[in-house]
Amino acid sequence: MRLFGSRVDDGRRDGDIDLHIEAQTAEQARIANELEFLLELKDRIGEQKIDVIVRGPGYAPRAIDRIALHDGVRLS
To answer: How far apart are CA 25 and CA 20, in angstroms?
Structure first.
């Protein structure tokens, strides 16, 4: 999992939380799992603007994926 976007810059406090997750299996990349993760995260950190991108194995990277992989900070 990587954090990317405005929250990577310690000098900024605004903006949403952008997370990029590379799932190990196609099953883990399902939208239902993405929503469950998002709800659990909001339960833990409170109501905030959070964008989550989940990609399954063998995905074709889009521009947003390349940005997250290049500029993002690995969280786990």
So the answer is: 15
